[in-house]
Write a structure and sequence with these properties.
By secondary structure, the chain is an alpha+beta fold. It has one domain: q2cbj1_9rhob like domain (Jelly Rolls, Sandwich). Helices cover about 30% and strands about 35% of the residues. The strands form three sheets. Strands 1-11-7-15-5-4-2 form a seven-stranded antiparallel sheet. Strands 3, 6, 9, 10, 12 and 13 form a six-stranded antiparallel sheet that branches. The protein has a two-stranded antiparallel sheet with strand order 8-14. Helix 1 packs parallel to helix 5. The longest helix is centred in the middle third of the chain and has 24 residues. The two termini are about 30 Å apart. InterPro entries: DUF2086 (IPR018655).
Length: about 240
């Protein structure tokens, strides 16, 4: 087992599952070391690693930019995705049942990707994001096709207070017949957050109902901020 896989295995998953059930998100402190964060951020300037680059302002997504990795994924990114998926599958399948959704996810990530590919979702979706002063990311959902894994992970690669100011990771929860609830997840360098991609089940007085989540990044006041995003379904 490599170091990253060992760290993922050592996470208190009962606490994470409870946080996801209660809030739709959970923080995982110290997933990557500073050296690992710097190595991951440095990939951004290696264009051969990526299949496409998106400048957010051109599409109304905010300001800043991101790049989707190409196949094969860098070994560090592939190891993270392979380590997280089996830990998240039981939560994802339990949520599907609670929300009355028929789809279930296989134990092996390779089998889920085969399902995506059979439906024409062939492009990798893990990505690196880079923000500068004044940049931000509008609230959104990373859906990409018919087959969507309901949880995803982000890892902050830069150090707040040293590399950048501002740039908080933000979630909003849209509840039926209620006003939206905002959440800010405090992340340090190397910390990760696991959160709902689209919907999560909530127990109400009349049974379980679905709430809709979106995520984004507040305006960076100064410096530069890099983030790694791990998405478990491929794109059309």
């Amino acid at each position: 087992m490599n170091a990253v896989a060992a760290r993922v295995a050592a996470i208190a998953w009962e606490r994470v599952e409870a946080g996801l059930d209660q809030e739709g998100a959970a923080v995982l402190p110290g997933l990557l070391t500073p050296a690992e964060c710097e190595a991951a951020a440095a990939l951004y300037d290696q264009p051969g690693r990526f299949r496409s680059r998106v400048v957010m302002a051109r599409h109304g997504f905010g300001r800043g930019e991101y790049q989707y990795f190409a196949h094969p994924l860098p070994a560090s990114v592939a190891a993270l995705r392979a380590s997280f998926y089996p830990r998240l599958v039981p939560i994802a399948n339990r949520w599907q049942g609670a929300m009355g959704l028929a789809a279930r996810f296989p134990d092996r990530h390779e089998d889920f990707l085969a399902r995506c590919h059979a439906a024409g979702q062939l492009r990798p979706t893990s990505l690196l994001l880079r923000y500068g002063q004044g940049d931000y990311n509008c609230l959104h959902q990373d859906l990409y096709g018919e087959h969507v894994f309901p949880l995803q992970v982000v890892v902050l690669l830069s150090a707040p207070g040293r590399d950048f100011e501002g740039g908080e990771f933000v979630l909003t929860e849209q509840r039926p017949r209620m006003q939206s609830r905002p959440m800010v997840l405090p992340l340090g360098q190397g910390d990760a957050a696991v959160f709902a991609v689209h919907q999560r089940p909530v127990q109400g007085t009349r049974g379980v109902y679905r709430v809709n989540l979106r995520h984004g990044v507040s305006r960076v006041r100064s410096g530069h901020r890099h983030t790694l995003g791990l998405i478990f379904h491929d794109a059309q």
